[in-house]
Amino acid sequence: MATEQNMIGPTLRSLREAEGLTQAEFAGRLQLAGWDISRETLAKVESQFRCVTDRELVRFAEALEVEPSELLKPTKF
Question: How far is the C-alpha of 47 from the C-alpha of 34, rounded, in Å?
Fold first, then answer.
């Protein structure tokens, strides 16, 4: 079993940072959109320590104003 719990974490972090948002600011944006997510949970997603549902994937994409498929693209480090 892979240690990573999701494949979108690094891309999510990259897109969030490109928007100039901290984790707390992005969590706040998601909360304003009606999703009760904490900065700590967001950090776990970005670090790939937490699974992501399809609904969460769509919510992340909507908050970043990208297509959900954009989050599935690998990020190079």
Answer: 23
Structure tokens at 28: 């706040």
CA Rg, the chain, in Å?
Answer: 11
Its sign, for the CA torsion 68, 66, 18, 20, is negative
Token pair for residue 27? 């969590």
Domain chopping of the chain, boundaries:
9-67
CATH fold of 9-67: 434 Repressor (Amino-terminal Domain) (1.10.260)
pLDDT > 70 fraction of the chain, expressed in percent and rounded: 95
Beta-carbon contacts of 25 under 8 Å, excluding residues fewer than 6 positions away, are: none
Record the pTM. Answer: 0.91
